[in-house]
Design goal:
This is Protein kinase domain-containing protein. This protein is an alpha+beta fold. The chain has 40 helices and 45 strands. Helix content is 34%, strand content 16%. β32 and β33 form a beta hairpin.
Length: 1113
């Protein structure tokens, strides 16, 4: 039987199937598939099918041993551009040149290959245009996953996929995350388990990038150190602004989790602890001898690896990243897990390295760590180890909880150990009995207090000395952990000795005895420690862990979701932008009074204070006083009241009143002679609305996002085919027409998000669609549409999507089909234009509302200019409360958009996965709004555990329920795409605002007090169940039920058609209905009905979703 001929369609299907085989978010095509698709049979069949010229010559080039072009053949075939292969290969272009990059410049498009660092305009021969190469670039990435061989360090381009076939949920901590991954065996290093831990560091600052390059040498060198208590990296690579380290997978988790979850009964536990202390000190001693420091030693960086004996060996991880960790800790003291973990164990000298703003006192390169830096945190770890060993797991958990609020072992105010630490040390000492094992505990405690936890680092003993002391303590009692386990077993078998107090405990895990105050039980084999919720350790989150019960973690995470905006400078971008921009600085320096001319606002802790009346008296002759007087008026001060503000990075904030920013600081790019630290480089005034500088700013935002963030749709698709809109507006140089998009090839297009505000003056109808395919009458378009076209041309994009023009408005079937795909339209758009300030389509959005921003200018000691102006970045006013963002359809459009240009009444804001930026170049952050900025919505939700995820989707739905619709029946439709994305990322079924995995909490919604809901009338073919809030008009709120205090019932189920056998296409809630015995007073006090209507007590039935849980003591 003849073999089946290869066709282009079959090849594309094989590529698509190969991409879907991987359950990680890295899209790549395996080596096996590439070999199959570049076989001689496949290549010959497809070249013949596509009628390619000079087929023999092409095959010779494709299979050339020195310069093969197999991958080029596959990319062109995958992209449907195989007819261009001759032109691509005409100049000797081969697989060795991959990947290639594209750069847009003022002179046009340029290209660069991996083999040549120079940019060129024509590397592929004559006849190749931009579209061909751009499409080639989009499709190349899945074929370029690296093969990790004997080399340890790799440098990858940002869009190169990793060969991961599986990737677990990342555990995020600080600026890094850890995931359990499985690497494709054909691309993994030899003799290495395919399951590994991948630590990913997001490098947000130039300092972090510099240190990664520097410390990578340390990590490489440390691989040569062999020690049983050190974790060695398997391989390392940098990818764009990511540093990736691969380690062996720690099956036992980390020490922090172990101490909280594992029981500690038995002499064996103490002997095992002592044995591990000896090993850890030995490892630190070896590091110190070789001139290395750890710098971030803590229980979460000590991992448990199983031994053949059934016990665990502790190993230190993250060695070689010390300065990077310390730098990250100093820069991330506000609202990060580094604050909750690393700071706890930091030695007293840590305060001397950094100022109050978290900035290094010396240059980052000059940070010097004492040889005894690691001894302090190791002593802290030993204290926690002793608390666990002598006082028990519960006492350790209580101690851990008491240290959560940024407490450290060292109390700098009292210049002594923290009071909570001292309390626990006294408890440990009080528990010590007259037994050999407790004598060892006493000696360890004395060693820690007298040789390790000493303020002056020079007074601390060395790791080598402490190792000898610990080894002496262990050896003096002559017991190994295994021998102690046998001893425990014998004691359990024989029963309690005479005179001892027998201890009866229920459960198979806690059966044992207590002798002279010592509970005996061997360390259980196969015990898996749970992942700590703020851990940076290379370990998994156990499947059996109930994340809902992590009260402290949920509280911590939810606290981070407060709706508060913070402001920071974005000077790396600003300096590059202004270096290529010719913008004259203000020629008039203005005038200052004597008092203001002496202000030193550029200093980190600068303050300004004064009575409002005094500012007013000097306002006519001083720009600064005029500015301060005007700001005082706007915040509501009286003439005799005092204005007091303090420097906070790039702003001056009010003292009190939650520290709101009122003034902005700018360092003039043309006179930036003085190092002004965290002052924003730039100007207080905006570029003119239609200036080339303004559009160049938009282009630069897009360029940086494309090349550094990877948030573009074509970057994120990884070469996969994406669903294009049915129709797009083709924007030519001087005219526009409607174009039907028939193939699945990728086109860059912009999408307009706007308010209709009543009927638009021009829409696509069945009567005019043929005319629009020829030309859309530009002068009849509403102003919003005309300005969106203007922006599209300025950004050099050929296509634009506008709902009222790309959907046939009087065709119900077309509208229903396109409405269901609305989420994909915005998700696949190159960028979204948001007419945020316009309440109707006729208002226009390009020109901000005129606003004469007051400012003053100070000269710095080195000749620099510092501009001070009013703080105008009010995101709640400009964005969240703007006309566009009050509309129901827009939430989905914003959330699913990759990147958005928000045209507000004051300025333009740029929103992408890297955050929110404004025209005055500040970066603005808000935990709640960060979900909307997620370029791959809603993956940002994975940073949170169950409690945080519930809070996020409830906040999202509460906000959505308050938005407005022209037609209330759109309420369940306008969120379909967003709901589908949430269901996928949460790995659960969801419909009508209810998620199966979180069913009870999804159902616990109600109307707010004093507001009644109203049922929405839907068409007969559109049913929304009464138990869904989507069936009603009006705002909702969810019941505020604390986590870990409810035992949820399991007899309430969400069932679908195929499960119920009903042919009505309805989702069914199946539950046990119970009678409610309530009198009229109970009904009045306890029952809240959604709609305003009377009801008799005997008509009420109820479903019990959960009941109070009896908390364990």
């Amino acid at each position: 039987m003849a073999a089946t001929l290869w066709t282009l369609v079959r090849l594309m299907d094989e590529c698509e199937n190969a991409e879907k085989e991987n359950s990680s978010d890295e899209v790549f095509i395996s080596t096996t598939t590439i070999k199959l698709l570049t076989s001689e049979d496949c290549v010959s069949d497809i070249l013949k099918e596509q009628n390619c010229q000079n087929q023999d010559a092409l095959k010779k080039r494709i299979y050339d041993e020195k310069c093969p072009a197999k991958i080029i053949f596959l990319i062109l075939a995958r992209a449907g551009k195989l007819d261009r292969i001759g032109q691509f290969l005409s100049n000797g272009f081969s697989d060795h040149h991959l990947p290639i990059e594209l750069l847009w410049t003022r002179e046009g498009y340029k290209f660069r290959s991996a083999k040549d660092s120079n940019w060129t305009t024509a590397p592929f021969g004559a006849g190749i245009d931009y579209n061909d190469v751009d499409y080639f670039i989009q499709k190349q990435w899945p074929f370029l996953a690296p093969i990790f061989e004997r080399q340890f360090e790799y440098v990858l381009q940002q869009k190169i996929p990793l060969p991961l076939v599986k990737k677990g949920t990342p555990i995020v901590s600080g600026f890094s995350s850890v995931s359990k991954i499985e690497m494709h065996p054909a691309r993994a290093p030899e003799q290495v388990e395919h399951s590994m831990a991948m630590k990913k560091m997001e490098l947000e600052s130039e300092d972090q990038i510099k240190y990664v390059k520097k410390e990578m040498t340390n990590v490489t060198s440390l691989r040569l150190l062999d020690h049983d208590h050190l974790v060695k990296a398997i391989l390392a690579c940098t990818r764009g602004k990511q540093a990736l380290f691969f380690f062996p997978w720690a099956k036992g988790g980390d020490l922090y989790s172990f101490l909280k979850t594992d029981s500690n009964e038995g002499m064996a536990a103490i002997i095992w602890m002592l044995d591990q202390m000896v090993g850890l000190c030995s490892a630190l001693s070896l590091l110190a001898d070789k001139g290395y420091r750890h710098g971030d030693l803590k229980p979460a960086n000590i991992l448990l690896f199983p031994e053949k004996s059934g016990s665990y060996r502790l190993k230190i991880t993250d060695v070689g990243l010390s300065k990077l960790h310390i730098l990250a800790t100093s820069r991330r003291l506000n609202g990060t897990t580094a604050k909750a973990t690393t700071r706890r164990y930091s030695p007293p000298e840590f305060d001397l390295l950094f100022d109050d703003d978290g900035e290094p006192v010396a240059d980052s390169d000059d940070i010097k760590l004492s040889r005894k830096f690691d001894i302090w945190p190791l002593g802290c770890v030993f204290i926690e180890f002793l608390i666990w060993a002598k006082l028990g797991r519960q006492k350790y958990k209580e101690f851990d909880k008491s240290m959560k609020r940024d407490r450290r072992f060292w109390d700098s105010a009292r210049e002594d150990l923290d009071i909570k630490v001292k309390d626990r040390i006294q408890s440990v000492e009080g528990s010590i009995k007259d037994t050999p094992c407790d004598e060892a505990v006493q000696r360890i405690l004395t060693l820690v207090l007298e040789q390790m936890l000493l303020v002056n680092s020079d007074d601390r003993s060395s790791a080598s000395s402490i190792h000898k002391e610990l080894k002496s303590i262990r050896d003096s009692y002559g017991l190994t952990a295994e021998q102690a386990a046998e001893s425990d077993h014998r004691q359990i078998s024989q029963g309690p000795p005479d005179g001892s107090n027998a201890m009866s405990q229920s459960g198979p895990e806690l059966s044992g005895i207590q002798s002279k105050g010592l509970s005996t039980k061997a360390i259980p084999s196969g015990n898996t420690a749970a992942m700590a919720y703020v851990s940076e350790a290379l370990a998994p989150l156990p499947k059996n862990r109930n994340a809902d019960e992590e009260i402290d973690f949920a509280t911590y995470r939810i606290a981070k979701l407060l709706n508060q905006w913070t402001v920071s400078p974005d000077n790396e971008f600003a300096q590059k932008f202004f270096s290529e921009t010719t913008r004259p600085s203000p020629s008039d320096r203005g005038q200052l009074c004597d008092s203001c001319s002496r202000l030193r606002i550029w200093e980190p802790n600068a303050t300004i204070s004064g009575v409002m009346r005094d500012f007013g008296t000097r306002a006519s002759g001083c720009d600064m006083c005029n500015l301060l007087y005007t700001v005082s008026q706007r915040i509501g001060l009286q003439e005799d009241q005092e204005l007091s503000c303090v420097r906070n990075g790039p702003t001056l904030n009010l003292n009190g009143r939650d520290g709101l920013p009122i003034l902005s600081l700018f360092s003039d790019p043309a006179f930036n002679a003085h190092d002004l630290g965290s002052v924003q480089v730039g100007y207080p005034t905006l570029s003119p609305p239609e200036s080339s500088e303004r559009y160049r700013l938009f282009q630069e935002w897009l360029h940086v996002c494309d090349n550094e963030h990877g948030h573009a749709r074509d970057a994120l698709s990884g070469g996969c085919a994406v669903q294009m809109p049915t129709r797009l507006i083709h924007v030519g140089e001087s005219s526009e027409h409607l174009e039907d998009i028939k193939d699945s090839g990728f086109l860059r297009y912009l999408a307009l998000s706007h308010c209709w505000g009543g009927s638009t003056s021009l829409s696509t109808m069945t009567s005019n669609i043929d005319q629009f395919r020829n030309e859309i009458p530009h002068d009849q378009l509403p102003l919003n549409f005309q300005e969106a076209i203007r922006v599209t041309r300025a950004l050099k994009i050929s296509y634009l999507w506008i709902d009222s023009l790309c959907i046939i408005q009087d065709d119900p079937e077309d509208w229903r089909r396109e409405a269901a795909r609305m989420g994909q339209v915005f998700s696949n758009a190159y960028c979204t234009i948001a007419a945020t300030s316009a309440a109707t389509s006729t208002e226009g959005f390009l020109t901000p509302k005129p606003n004469s921003t007051l400012s003053a200018t100070l000269e710095t000691p080195d000749g620099g200019l510092l501009h001070i102006s009013e703080f105008t970045e009010d995101c709640n006013r400009d964005l969240e409360s703007a006309p566009l963002n009050t509309r129901g359809w827009v939430m989905q459009e914003r959330a699913l958009s990759r990147r958005t240009l928000h045209f507000t009444k004051t300025q333009v804001y740029w929103e992408c996965g890297n955050g929110l930026h404004c025209e005055r170049l500040f970066k603005l952050s808000n935990p709640q709004s960060a979900l909307f900025a997620d370029s791959d919505f809603p993956k940002a939700i994975l940073k949170y555990y169950k409690g945080g995820r519930i809070t996020l989707f409830q906040n999202l739905y509460e906000k959505y329920s308050r938005l407005n619709f022209s037609y209330n029946s759109d309420r369940p439709v306008a969120i379909l795409g967003l709901e589908k994305h949430l269901s996928t990322i949460l790995q659960t079924r969801g419909e009508f605002g209810v998620f199966e995995q979180y069913l009870a909490r999804s159902l616990l919604w109600s109307r707010p007090e004093n507001i009644f809901l109203h049922s929405i009338t839907f068409q007969d073919d559109h049913h929304v169940p009464s138990w869904s809030w989507m069936a009603y008009e009006g705002p909702i709120t969810y019941a505020n039920i604390p986590f870990d205090k409810v035992e949820w019932n399991t007899d309430c189920l969400l069932q679908y058609d195929e499960e119920t056998g009903i042919n009505s296409k309805r989702t069914v809630l199946k539950a046990v209905i119970r009678d409610l015995k309530l009198d009229k007073l109970d009904i009045h006090n306890k029952v809240k009905l959604d709609e305003e209507c009377g009801i008799e007590a005997f008509n009420l039935r109820g479903v019990i979703l959960g009941k109070d849980k009896k908390r364990e003591s």
